[in-house]
Design goal:
Length: 582
């Protein structure tokens, strides 16, 4: 590929067409990139970023970012500028085939230049990004405060107005209309000013089931409400309200918001409104046939700050361990902070638990699995002792939470709902052709809103040799399928068996499976096709689900997708049903 510099000028002499390399060393950045220094005629220094994995016939491909800074600070800041340059490149996810952009972008004092290319991709600013340069009037409003973690981030306060320069993934390039500064912002912290997303009561891309979960979290009271887009009727909306219920607790009721042919909305034909805002104001004053007057918007989930995707293998010094949360056979779990800013969970692994190379290979696969029901893997420290950095979940592991006063108060419908969330996470793992190998309540984490996420997927395999061979190792026999115990055959179907055992943990509030039996007892009984009896207070219908998971032949066991749908519909009617219009 032929690459040439875009035309540009500096204050002072122009950049030399054939620059001489400076006396400063090349820097190897990760495995794919090299950064070199080039001296211009004016004595200034540029940084050239090269992708050494995308070679032409004889030479590596110049990615094409140049950062001009004065020669006086080049020694001190060379490596720092190089890393920032790589950060800038990776965050924009520029197309390696070559991009063109004649504009210069000022990011915290460093000017970056792109390379022109004759490739077919040259007309695109980024492979999957959207630019707003042709839409000057598009403004976004900050929905939360954001404190910068990196120099290239743009901090803002809730309510600040911003112009988005480029959308790409979880981090967008934006300009503050308050300070005039530019930098990167987390996309889930802002909403377009000219859309319903700025309304506290509007929740985009929310399913009916997720709506019910959200309205039922602690902090919401009867009269809490939200409006969402209808799943079944595109372009229509639904109003969901928390209402007082019977002995089983509060319930959520749904009302279809219908559209008028000439514009406008109504729930009851006797009352029509030109906007949803007018509809909300009216029913906030009077219930007028609804189950409750609209008391307050549903409390939103606290947004999770996206992890900078260029920060994967991180220095140990960037982590601060604050509070020990637990300890196991292979290490400890701590609550801590990354760069003294972002709260995280830090799992330490004892030296010798696994080979760093094998761990990194598996961790790279685990990193690709991203779903709202999986605990997100943020970063790793690969020098022993190995550290794993994940998102922090306030209520800790499900096993411990079930034994707390709050956990013991959970009613059956909530326990089944939490089980459905676990099945949803495992259905994603199933879809990705991955295996967990150690599914149990101890490896499920719980948020402050009682949202459940699957954790530690994949770790069992990379420590398997130590897991089984160490004297006294606590192999989770009571959760393991017979074919995995006897032949070491793990599959997603052996995970389904484990899920059936997890269901017994749920309905018994954390009781150890097969009570009164040792591991050898369990193995002998399973060889005789023994199955745990139905736990006390467990409905027969739920025990039937457990027995489906414990079918002897793996191929006869249900899929996690089936289990997710079955548990989601365990207590609720069909998705299409709404309350009668008032």
């Amino acid at each position: 590929m032929e690459t040439t510099l875009t035309e540009s000028s500096h204050q002072g002499a122009p950049w030399s067409p054939v620059p001489q390399r400076s006396n400063f060393p090349e820097l190897q950045l990760e495995d794919n990139f090299r950064c070199e220094t080039l001296r211009g005629q004016d004595g200034g220094v540029d940084l050239k970023l090269t992708d050494i994995t995308a070679k032409t016939e004889d030479a590596p491909n110049i990615v094409g970012f140049y950062s001009r800074f004065s020669s006086g600070d080049e020694v001190r800041s060379l490596q720092d500028r190089s890393l920032k340059l790589l950060c800038f490149f990776r965050r924009l996810e520029q197309c390696r085939m070559g991009c063109t952009c004649s504009a210069q972008k000022q990011i915290n004092g460093g000017t970056f230049y792109k390379v022109k290319s004759n490739s077919e991709a040259s007309n695109h600013i980024a492979r999957s990004g959207n630019t707003y340069t042709d839409h000057e009037d598009v403004v976004f409003v900050a929905q939360h405060d954001f404190k910068a973690t990196n120099d290239s981030d743009l901090p803002f306060r809730k309510g600040d107005r911003l112009k988005v320069l480029q959308e790409n993934g979880e981090w967008w390039l934006a300009k503050s209309l308050v300070s005039g500064q530019e930098g990167f912002i987390p996309s889930n912290y802002v909403a377009r000013a000219d859309t319903l997303e700025v309304e506290k009561w509007f929740f985009k891309d929310l399913s009916r089931r997720e709506t019910e979960r959200l309205l039922m979290v602690p902090g919401n009271k009867p009269g809490a409400f939200l409006i969402r887009e209808s799943e079944t009727c595109k372009g229509s909306f639904s109003l969901s309200i928390r209402d007082t219920g019977d002995d089983e607790g509060d319930v959520v009721k749904h009302y279809k918001i219908r559209c008028l042919d000439k514009g406008g909305y109504y729930i009851s034909p006797s009352n029509t409104f030109s906007t949803l805002q007018e509809l909300v104001r009216y029913y906030s004053r009077t219930a007028d046939g609804l189950c409750q007057r609209l008391y307050a918007p549903c409390k939103p989930r606290a947004p999770q700050q996206p992890w900078a995707h260029d920060e994967w293998e991180i220095p140990r010094e960037t982590l601060k361990m604050v509070k020990k949360l637990g300890a196991g056979q292979f290490g400890e779990v701590w609550m801590g902070y990354y760069k003294n800013n972002q709260k995280v969970a830090i799992k330490t692994l004892k030296e010798g638990t696994m080979e760093p190379e094998a761990f990194l290979q598996e961790a790279n696969l685990m990193k690709q699995l991203q779903h709202q029901r999986l605990v997100r893997l943020h970063a790793v420290v690969t020098k022993e002792p190995i550290l794993i950095v994940t998102e922090f979940m306030v209520n800790g592991c499900l096993l411990d939470f079930l034994k707390t006063d709050e956990g013991k108060k959970l009613k059956l419908n909530k326990l089944i709902d939490m089980s459905a969330q676990v099945a949803e996470g495992m259905a994603y793992i199933e879809k990705k052709n991955y295996i967990h190998r150690d599914l149990r309540a101890a490896n499920i984490l719980v948020s402050d809103t009682l949202s459940c996420k699957v954790a530690d997927f994949g770790l069992a395999r990379i420590i398997e040799s130590e897991y089984t061979a160490q004297e006294g190792a606590k192999f989770p026999i009571k959760w393991t399928a017979p074919e995995a115990i006897n032949f070491g055959t793990f599959s997603i179907k052996s995970d389904v068996w484990s899920f059936g055992i997890l269901l017994t943990e749920m309905v018994t509030y954390g009781r150890i499976p097969y009570p009164g039996m040792t591991n050898p007892d369990v193995i002998r009984c399973l060889d005789r096709f023994y199955r745990m009896p139905c736990p006390d207070s467990c409905p027969q219908e739920l025990y039937d689900v457990m027995m489906m998971c414990w079918r002897q032949k793996p191929e006869d066991r249900p899929t996690f997708e089936f289990l997710q749908n079955l548990l989601n519909d365990f207590f609720i009617a069909t998705e299409g049903q709404y309350e009668m219009q008032p």
